[in-house]
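Protein of interest.
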Amino acid sequence: MEDSDDQRAAAPDPSCPPWALREYAVLADGERGAVLDPRGRIVWLCAPRWHDDAVFSALIGGAGHFTVEPTDPWHVWGGSYEEGSLIRVSRWVTADCVIECREALALPARTDRLVLLRRMRVVRGEARLTLDLDPRPGFGAARMREPRCERGVWTAGAEGLRMRLAGAPDAVWRDGAGLRGDFRLREGETHDLVLELSRGRENGPLDADALWRATEREWRAAVPDCSRLVAPRDARHAYAVLRGLTSVSGGMVAAATTSLPERANSGRNYDYRYAWLRDQCYAGLAVAAHGPHPLVDDAVRFVAERILEDGDGVRPAYTVDGRPVGRERSLRLPGYPGGNDHVGNDAGAQFQLDTFGEALQLFAAAAGHDRLTEEARRAADVAVDVVERQWLKPDAGLWELEDRWWTHSRLSVVCGLRRMAEVLPGSAGRRCTDLADTVLRETERRCLRADGRWRRTEDDDGAEAALLVPMARGCTFLKGDGDGDCDAATRAYIESQLAEDGYLYRFEHPGKPLGEAEGAFLLCGFTMALATHRVGDRIGAFRWFERTRAACGPPGLFAEEYDVRQRQLRGNLPQAFVHAMMLECAVRLAGESTLP
């Protein structure tokens, strides 16, 4: 039987064809992110916040986009971010002119209102540009209604959202297709477009100059100097990405997008518009290695609030305002090529023991900067209580697989307990030490091979890149009474089994070569660089760092995986924990870490 009309997937928008993921750039202000293709089309934007419905969803085959591009189709494109920010400058070159379009989500951001800035400037020649704005709330299901233009500002509304657009008074509203307009600019001229989407009825001026000044000021204050680090420009960019993904609530989304496939037609595409506590801890630890910057406080606050509120029931992922993540469901859209459309994430209901270990490491790092709040101190006590009750229980682990007795999860909590023991006084510190020793003894009994390397689980001898994470954190493990180095043996085995062409994979898939089963995992490559540095191989560490650092597209954004043979990104972007680990590498390989 054929699907009925309400079951059949909608047809993709032909005006916004898909690009390889490496070509997309992202604008973000902490509360939401916009995905920009190289032709000048914004094809993804959720409003008003990360986890809300998309207004522009052409990226995954839905309706809705915001286009500014040269009218002349015979042009090439490029662009870059302004250093230390997510202000993007697109650049188009035609046969007769050069055009730049400066773009940003305005700061400071509000949770109920977003402002998107686009400033066009002709560098050389005379240009004609096209505007095409078609907001479609509800992942393309709704159209803006009651459009009107008053005093040069267009307004319309639908699904509880109100739109205002300044800068296109002569554009034409086409029923069912939004606004269309053209601009002619001479050399040196500029033209501003200001798009606002809000839950309320905003009436203040949409002053482009004032909004740009505030946005520039906020980015200057937000991103620290990284000139003493390895790859300083990339390090600042990584910090800017983390800032752009972090809400005023403190929650940091794992990525700005949903449903971008990790492997074509494999069903492996997920919604990452949520805050994973583990990822937030990775980011907080990376930033803390550089200094006591505000993102450390954000991470500590958000993680502590979740642990205090939920205790044993802590979820791996939350919305950025601390609510549970809904179960995965389809939108009946075509999806990005090779993928399916999904919102929600079933991992939100899993138990992942290592989350508590990472949280304890984060709290200890905050204490090292004298940033451990009373709330975080109480959350650390709760986390230790949970570990004490739950550490023998199988969990889903770092990769969110089936519940098993994952070695990495136990070593993560040992590392966290040891770190907290160093900062907690008296009996509280001794309790952490004793519990760490207990967990480690049982983990050694179950998971340490006679030759001194760690098993993946108690019943799986396979190589597992997750075991590099405690090494990267400087948590060392010696065989038995100190006779042999488990870290060096495990690191060497992982490299021998999971490395290929300078990139690292997560684990082996039985019967499939590494690169055919999935892409190289960029988190693992940067973690290998840190672990290699920890065992004293500085040259090897730099090789891993530089090879993995190359696995990005022209905008300098990392996805979760990298198809080495095709040199293509795979999965959602920008992937926060990859940028976090890249930043930590830049700090530690430069010898600039403020923490052990």
